[in-house]
Amino acid sequence: MQVGRKSCWRQMQASFYRLLCLIPTGFPVRSVNMQRSTDNITIRQGDTAIIRCYVDDKVSKVAWLNQSNIIFAGRDKWSLDPRVDLVTKGQLEYSLRIQKVDVYDEGSYTCSIQTKQQPKTSQLYLIVQVPANIYKISEDLTVNEGGNVTLSCLATGRPDPAITWRLLNPSAEPLDGEEYLDITGIMRNQAGRYECKASNDVATPDVKYVNVVVNYPPKIKKTQSSETQVGRMGTLQCEAIAVPTPEFEWYRDEARLSNSQGINIQILGTTTILMIANITEDDYGNYTCVASNRLGFQNASLFLYRPGTGRDINGSASVCQSPWLLLACFTCFFFKC
Question: What is the CATH number of the domain that holds 85?
Fold first, then answer.
């Protein structure tokens, strides 16, 4: 196989030398400053490449070739590409300039020289680098807690870009994943904005984002009971976290409460407040706050009591235990009673 390649290269050289015989001698007579081995020239896509070739007074004919295609013969341009021209500073340089380089310009370029003694060639290989570009990324998504998630981030570039992921929470630590990021049994603390970065050191990394929403059932995190004198306003407060945002209901014993004379229920985002005006002896007792969404619900007991009875004013959250209240919670949630 190697013998075949050498034979092919000798045939190509012979063609170059025959070409040089046809080139007019109008170019200044000089010799060439040649590299003995093929050199690489690395250029970024869109930039200007100058492939240099230097000569002196022992050269009679020169030409530039790209593989088997003639680009310049002496000063005569054979290429139809308007981006290509010669750089001839003084009479010491016979360099090839390519503007707005693209990937199809990559390859070997040969500066071929005819001296009085023998022909010579200088071969250089042009490498075109392309900045990383993310061309496809997962859409924003919503998933229930415990589900499995796969995020994809596909990018191009030369050399091939490295792809990294981060969850932009306060720590923003790198995640194990490349083109695909797999999350098994996703938890609520894994919700947020995911960053995909593609980089290959050619230019500034390309960065795109995916927002992941994790649904989970309500959890009551804070309650506030009330110690209120007769004739005053009593206020009970209940706060819950959930995705989607929870809906709230209030119960006195097993009766659902609603806005009516003397009772005012307010819902402020994830917090609900039950206000009872002009407290009477009959208003003292146990109240229940229920937070629900389509994934489930949780309830907490709160107390409105007379000053001096010594109750703990901080109610505690607990799962609904009363069968009747369980039924009432589900019925009111689904039928919006």
Answer: 2.60.40.10
